[in-house]
Amino acid sequence: MGILEGKVVAVTGAGRGVGREIALLCAREGAAVVVNDLGGNAEGEGADLTPAQQTVDDIKAAGGKALVNGASVADPKGAASIVEDAVQAFGRIDAVVNNAGILRDRIWHKMSHEDWNAVIDVHLNGCFNVSKAATPYFREQQSGSFVHFTSTSGLIGNFGQANYSAAKLGIVGLSQSIALDMARAGVRSNCIAPFAWSRLIATIPATNEAEALRIERMKTMTADKIAPLVAFLASDASQDVSNQIFGVRKNEIFLFSKPRPIRSMQKSEGWTAQAIADEMLPAFRGSFADPGERSGDVFGYDPI
Is residue 143 domain-resident? Predict the structure, then answer.
């Protein structure tokens, strides 16, 4: 008996990389899996069901249950079809894993509206669309789990990824509100920031030696390391875990803090702009976040 025996899980972007490993493990743990993948390239262009079909074929060859869905999560009707396929084929839906993503990395002053909208549509709107489609079923059965993928690019920041960073931090806000709104229905919502080598990561250019070394470290972080946490969060074993942000880096699992006030200063007569410069700034400066900090600075050590 696997931890997901009898469950039905929908995994978006499951034709390759992290999503594929999630789908394979969920199936091994006993779940019937809807393998969704449009099959486009790293920038979201084109469509090819071959990767999704290969994942399904591999699941079935191992004795599991799965089906292909080739819809775009950015299309509300397509997203709804992912959930409908699960219910029609397997009778229910127990967990949604919002993993689908694309990259259109551009330095800020060169980022177009098209680059912005394409990434927001797949990541943030895609999470909304698929989650919204599953919600009526979760409410009716008084159970369910949303597992959304965020990124340290959103939680910490990164060069050339304003669109991706905004979408990924937006997903955290979405997950938190879903968790609060759906708690009364026994539904939970959590985020994972994965560290894993994928075809999307492979598109990021190395502009200096430090970045090249970071990319080489990323190549040692395989996608299969992410899947166990997803399977846990999709299972009944996590029934009291909600509204959290996790990370997985090789064999390391960590829990992120959330933004909370760290310093406070009150002035009874109110503040002027000059008083802020003269009094607040010196008091707060020692607690300022590093304006140039990136994920590699926070996670500067090598995982085991």
Answer: yes
